[in-house]
Amino acid sequence: MADKDYAPLSTACVRALNDRMYERRKAAALEIEKMVKDFVSVHNHSQIKKLLKVLGSDFAISQNPHMRKGGLIGLAAMAIGLGKESGTYTEELVGPILTCLSDADSRVRYYSCESLYNVVKVLRGNIIPYFNEIFGSISGLVADPDQTVKNGSELLDRLLKDIITEAPSFDIESFVPVLRERMFTKERFVRQFLVSWLTVLDAVPDSQMSKYLPEFLDPLFYILDDSSLEISTMCEKQLGEFLSNIIKNPAGVDFPAMINILILHSQSYNVMLQMMAITWIQEFVGLAGKAMLPYTSGILNSVLPCLAYDTEEKKTVREISKVVNDNLMKLIEREEGADSRLDLEETIEILSKQLQRGTQQSKVAALRWLYHLFMQIPECMFNHVNLVTPVLLKTLSDHSDEVVILDLDVLAKISSHHGDHFKQFILSLLKLFSADRSLLETKGSFIIRQLCVLLKAEEIYKSLSELLVLEENLKFSRLMVETLSTILLTSSELFDLRTNLKELNSKESCQLFCCLYQTWCHSQIATISLCLLSGCYGHTSDLIRIVGEQEVTVEMLTELDRLVQLLESPIFTFLRMELLDGEQELISALYGLLMLLPQSEAFRLIQNRLACVPQIKIRERPKLSKKSRKQKLMDEIDFNSLIEHFQEISTKHHLARR
Hints:
Layout: H1 11-18, H2 22-41, H3 45-59, H4 65-82, H5 90-100, H6 106-123, H7 131-141, H8 147-166, H9 172-183, H10 188-203, H11 213-224, H12 229-248, H13 255-265, H14 271-288, H15 296-303, H16 315-330, H17 344-357, H18 360-376, H19 378-382, H20 385-395, H21 401-415, H22 419-435, H23 437-454, H24 457-468, H25 474-490, H26 495-503, H27 507-520, H28 524-533, H29 537-548, H30 554-567, H31 573-578, H32 584-596, H33 601-611, H34 625-635, H35 639-657
Helix pairs in contact: 1-2, 2-4, 3-4, 3-5, 4-5, 4-6, 5-6, 6-8, 7-9, 9-10, 9-11, 10-12, 11-12, 11-13, 12-14, 13-14, 14-16, 15-16, 15-17, 17-18, 17-20, 18-21, 20-21, 21-22, 21-23, 22-23, 22-24, 23-25, 24-27, 25-28, 27-28, 28-29, 29-32, 29-35, 30-33, 32-33
């Protein structure tokens, strides 16, 4: 090689730079350093540029690996020789080295790290305009298969962090995309490297990293899931720092840009990751308030399933989820435009999903949500009532009594809003019982009793009776009537309704009696019970005679036995006391009942009761005006018509049995 080809380098220096031996290349570098210092002292910029071109173009990107190594050490020597003047030539010094950082030869990559370290050490803040390129290059070297390259990159990394930390200004905005682009990597060492940079930048005063959190929060949560305890712990600590900064200074934080990321990761199977995400959601709901309402459905989809967690490991997740759920619910208030921020249809869909496939705890929470929504924004909710009601009706068959009670609370709330909703609900309930007999048998009584507490018992019974009159399925009608009769005669919740029917001292109570009678004819014993309760003893005797003329079945005898047990219960204490007055129609009715029974335990109970009736009245008692009024109202009831209806229904059942 001629001197002129590589001027201003001497032939000896060129040979030394190409030598296999590091010591000779080092000696050449010292010569270059001295040469550059001389150029600087006489301001010979042309020679400096010429030398940079030779080392950067001819050596550093040569096909010969030894020549590349020589070029790298030469560039480092030039930076040292230039000293304070190096900033003028930053691009020419750094560019060729960056190219060599991705060299196929591991030794070239190592010397590239060493060379760049020395160059950066001199340039300091001058490398900031090229920082993104340098960062991109060394982010791959931290996972280099060659340990010496990794070690070299780590030294360079530490130096860069020192420079950036000391820099009076750093363009974080342009750096964040470079950082985010690499954060989805699964390479462990790269992840560690990236999180360490987030930590450094977050520690820089006035860096406002929270402002850029939406850019890298998602990949940061993926890194939190790393199998390496060291990396996940490092990431967990940094996420905690970011959240702490947000809590201290929430102004300017873009909560909406991050909430969906948190919702996604809060459904992770990794408990630590899930807990971290839900903790963030908790703080977001507290800090951002109603700005979180548009994301209600997503948040509920995340936290409601967590309410059932029962292991020690997941206890904290459950408790935080409860807080999130409660605080989010408090954001829904009765105010104008409250629904505009809430995607009601999506929210109802999520709540319905929990009712259909959730745990007991999530179902309870979902029902409380629905009740709260109907309380706070009823007008909006009733626009979607057709989405809610079918799911609520299905939920009545849930195995949990708590769920069923809350479900009925919501259904009652809907029904009480408007008469049409009430009628539709009662019809739907009846259809549900008809389609699912096991529900009627196992929970029917419980459901009806609860409804009678939540709504007007009289309206419940009246509506059910009016619908059952039209029911074509006789078997179902009878089963339903027997259920309603048993509830009426035994349940404490129906005390007021029993009292009204017993006294029959108003036109309304008489109308209710007739309404129930027409339906309860589907069960002869239920009809007899109703008449005994209402004091229609003469009519009871007529009914018993009609029953006596019909075929006696085992089913009828079972029902008669149950009727006798009821007559001996506290509910009918008033009736037994009337025997003291020598109430002949009542005595006649009981004798009729006695004649219907075979000589069984029930027969002996009635017989013994009648044997206790005194032959003469204990004392004459004046008729009370209240009783006279009742008799007057009863006289207005068309019992002949009722008997005809009773016989007609009895005949239908007889034919159906045959």
